[in-house]
Amino acid sequence: MEVKIKAFNGLSLNELYDILALRNEVFIVEQNCVYQDIDSKDQKALHVLLYEGSSLAAYARLFDKGIAYDTAAIGRVIVAPAYRNRALGDLLVDEAIKAIETHYKTISITISAQAHLQRFYGKHEFVTVSEEYLEDDIPHVKMKRN
After folding, report:
1. Rounded to an integer, what distance in angstroms lies between the CA atom of residue 5 and that of residue 23?
2. Quick one: average pLDDT of 23-44?
3. DSSP letter, residue 87
């Protein structure tokens, strides 16, 4: 598994296409959720890409404090359907946390997690700090890691 951490301007056209295609496949088509995925925040993010060969297996985007929340943030966490049940989600979140600590020099991180994933993020020391709310008609909770 090859891990890449890149700013928006460092992404190749193929990498950007892979990211947008994967997000579209899962967040819009698989989850049957029509929403505006391209939100003008990608340009402000660091992008974590996990490749197996030429295939994008997992992805997340990271923000410094003050962009999405008053802390650093992880968002758009996704594992491609063909790569699920291989603990890539754990690897992806671990790499995202390390990248935030390295690039943003902080350990305080906020995520808006799909509610059913609270136990998964809990393994990575995130704790739920909000009541459940709907984001794009999907139940979510705010979680923090300090």
Report:
1. 17
2. 94
3. S
Alpha-carbon distance 12 to 18, whole Å? 10
> Which contiguous run of DSSP H or E holds residue 100?
helix 88-103
Element (H, E) at 119: helix 118-122
What pLDDT score was predicted for residue 60?
98
- Report pLDDT for 84: 96
CA 100, 38, 19, 120 dihedral sign is positive
Which of the 8 DSSP states describes residue 14?
H
Distance, CA of 140 to CA of 122 (rounded, Å): 14
**Cα–Cα distance measured from residue 63 to residue 24, given in angstroms and rounded to the nearest whole number:** 20
Share of the chain above pLDDT 90, in %: 95
Topology of domain 2-145 in CATH is: Aminopeptidase (3.40.630)
Helix (H) or strand (E) holding 18: helix 13-23
Whole-model pTM?
0.94
